[in-house]
Amino acid sequence: MDILAAVSGNIATIGYGIAAIGPGIGIGLLVAKTQEATARQPEVSGLLRANMFIGAALVEALGLIGLVAGFLFK
Amino acid sequence: MSILVQAAALPAVLPAVLQAKSSGPDWPTLDDFFPPDFIGGGGLLPLNRVGLVRLVAIIILAVLLILGARSLKVVPTRASGIFEYCVNFVKKQIADEILGEEAGRRYLPLIATIFFTVLALNITGVIPFFNVSSNGVVAMPLVLAIIAWVAFIVAGIRAHGAGHYFKAALFPAGAPKLLYIILTPIEFISTFVLRPFTLTIRLMANMISGHFLLAAFYVMTEYLLLHAAAALKGVAVVSFAAVIAFTAFEIFVAALQAYIFALLTSVYISLALEEH
Would an 8 Å CB–CB cutoff place A69 in contact with chain B? Predict the structure, then answer.
């Protein structure tokens, strides 16, 4: 069979792109919901913001593990 | 190559530059974080460029903090006002918010130390001629994560006693007995293994990706300006604008990561204190 298209280089380079999809959606949801909650109850905005960053840090870790994995498994 | 990146990565990329100037920009590599030692190579206490940056950053931080603490007055000057604002931010927004007034006061020294150390070591990634964050090498984030790990375990043991703390952490109350076969390994891994692991990876990967982002736009600007075809030289303006934008973004990330590291440390301590 003839080869129609070929990609040279390492497939690991697209790994981070895939790894960023999930955390991207996750952080989007987190920030959106925090904004919504802050609009409803501005008086607890400090606690909401702290909780948002905790959640964002946990979600973000997944994306960053994807970045590191690209360097580890060449 | 731009002069800034040259200063950051000269020893590592010089051979490559001499061989292949015409083939394309010299993209940043992981070697930027592992330059050759210039003191005590292979010995007990080797020192390379990243280690020197770390040392200088810590000395500057220590001097600033000592000067700030000495100049405290009822009516602060502008410089000590900035110092008070930073310490107050850590106290109000991190320690008191998560741990409450009483425990917050007890753990403020630890949390403030972690916050300012991470901030000082992160910010060197955007300062000209330093151009590298020593948190991009796994050693420093790992040490900070181990400090946080020991801190929350000790906090739990002091508050509840060793037996009670580990029992509460590993065998969550209220679950059916049979479920502990699955629950206990999951709790063990997520509490005692993944917490320090993710603290380390989050900080390290943020600093590595920040360095790549900045250095990539530096070398792209330089390449487009000096080596690319005439029609492409205009794109260098866009690329240089990206350098400025991402430098501002990296300053934000440096502060954000310091905030998150300190915040998560206090969350872990507060979870250990509340365990019952």
Answer: no
